[in-house]
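Subject: sequence -> structure tokens, single chain

Hey, anyone have a minute? Need the predicted structure for the following. Not urgent.
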Amino acid sequence: MDPLLHVVVDFPLPVLGAQPRGITAGGGLLWFTQQSLDQLGKISLTGVISGIPLPQLPYDSAGPAKAVVPR
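Reply:
Had a minute. Here:
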């Protein structure tokens, strides 16, 4: 939403098929997940869009890997 005009503004994502899910605000940015790209997306209030890759966890046919917590 444009804070001055109180209207919703659409910003097209730079990658087709990114499958954005959920959105939240924080730190002056809008944050969302890009499900098919395995990354977080962020949009500035002026419409600058960038992505942050998520770390990849090992996966095998038995299912997703379990998180390992150091002790």
